[in-house]
Specification:
- This protein has 12 helices and 5 strands.
- Helix 9 packs parallel to helix 10.
Length: 224
């Protein structure tokens, strides 16, 4: 009886502690909830991604406003978090196209250690969700990176190339446009050069301009 009482007290204490702690929005669902309500008119494309996508409308807002594009990137996110908010931040906006850019933070192990196969599976799931809702897909390569400033012990260049090879093979098999940022922007170390990035990961305005030229070619093929 005593052990039962102790267990009950421990459970009660744990529940009280959980009630006092603020709930964590792991997938960032709150980030765009209000913005999504404000979206009016037809959306040509939603850009889904991490900090690289998050910073894009800030660096070059005209690219989005003048083309009917919507940015839905969240800094630091891995593909699993993007997948969890995909229905809210992409499907609910009913765009013609979704542009998916993922992989950097998975390889950087931002949330937990993920295999390349798990990252690939998450991206495939996003593609399948889009297709099931009559949303066309443009799949993008992960940008080159020789090193992550917040994970200096990692050497990501080879893993990024392996992941991109899986993305391209899948896109080709599915007849999905594949935008190869990596080949167009890499330097001799398979990293992102200074002319396109100050930290080797996040593009400057010049870097985004290169990306815009590449993704626009793909979008023109699929946007009606």
């Amino acid at each position: 009886m005593k052990s039962i009482m102790v267990a009950a007290l421990c459970l009660a204490g744990s529940l009280q502690l959980m009630a006092q702690e603020p709930l964590q929005d792991w997938a960032g669902l709150e980030r765009y909830q209000e913005d999504n309500k404000m979206v009016q008119g037809p959306v040509k494309a939603v850009f889904m991604g991490n900090s690289i996508t998050d910073g894009w409308p800030v660096a070059d807002p005209d690219f989005f406003t003048q083309n009917g594009y919507v940015g839905r990137g969240i800094s630091g996110q891995v593909s699993a978090q993007m997948l969890m908010r995909f229905r809210q931040d992409v499907i609910a906006l009913n765009p013609q196209v979704v542009v998916i850019l993922a992989g950097t933070n998975d390889i950087a192990r931002n949330d937990y250690a993920m295999t390349l196969e798990q990252t690939f599976d998450n991206v495939v799931s996003m593609v399948q969700l889009a297709q099931a809702n009559q949303i066309k897909v443009v799949l993008c390569s992960t940008l080159p990176a020789f090193q992550f400033g917040w994970r200096p012990e990692l050497k990501p260049a080879e893993d990024i190339k392996k992941l991109n090879a899986k993305f391209k093979e899948f896109a080709d098999a599915q007849g999905i446009p594949f935008v190869d940022y990596h080949s167009a922007m890499k330097d001799e170390r398979d990293g992102l050069p200074l002319k396109y990035s100050e930290d080797g990961v996040h593009p400057t305005v010049e870097g985004y301009k290169v990306m815009e030229g590449l993704v626009q070619k793909a979008l023109k093929k699929v946007i009606q």
